[in-house]
Design goal:
This protein is mainly α. The chain contains seven helices and no strands. The radius of gyration is 21 Å and the shape is elongated.
């Protein structure tokens, strides 16, 4: 349905999928359709689902690549900081382990829930849960940097692992981006 009326060539209110694919890409259009409504419900077409899906996939792409680059940079400088100790000679305490554990739990629960959604053909719920998982991954990074000022090697590894899980979950929904 578009503008409160059933889509029809006769009425001239049909959305051209080729135009959307050309403008936003196949992954965005696929995700927008899956995100917009349950299979049992009528889809009220709105470009807002396309825009939201495009924005989400763009954020995932940029976030993943920026964090991957930062992790590589951290790995290069890691050798310089091996065996670091505080000014009084005591080993530096790991104060973010509980946050890494929480991130791991979010990923495990997310995988379970998203798998159930996909098995039940509730793709709209799967997409929403993937978006929530992405928000939690970003929240993890915010919490760690607020506490420590920067990600440690262990924090960065946990972040990259979580993003890898996210990309795997996105695979059936946005295969081009995931690849």
């Amino acid at each position: 349905i578009s503008d409160g009326r059933k889509m029809s060539k006769h009425l001239g209110n049909v959305v051209d999928p080729d135009e959307l694919v050309e403008r936003y890409g196949a992954d965005t259009v696929r995700l927008a359709v899956l995100y917009a409504a349950r299979p049992q419900r009528t889809l009220n077409w709105s470009d807002s689902a396309v825009l939201r899906s495009h924005r989400f996939l763009t954020q995932v792409w940029e976030y993943f690549h920026s964090r991957l680059a930062a992790a590589e940079e951290l790995a290069e400088t890691e050798g310089l900081q091996a065996g670091a100790a505080s000014s009084d000679g005591q080993p530096i305490r790991d104060t973010t382990e509980h946050l890494r554990l929480k991130l791991s739990q979010w990923c495990e629960k997310g995988v379970e829930k998203i798998t159930q959604d996909m098995e039940g053909l509730e793709m709209h719920s799967a997409v929403r849960n993937i978006m929530r998982l992405f928000d939690r991954i970003k929240d993890y990074e915010k919490r760690v940097t607020a506490r420590e000022g920067a990600l440690s090697r262990a924090d960065s590894d946990a972040l990259i692992d979580a993003l890898s899980v996210l990309v795997q979950l996105l695979g059936p929904l946005a295969p081009h981006l995931s690849e």
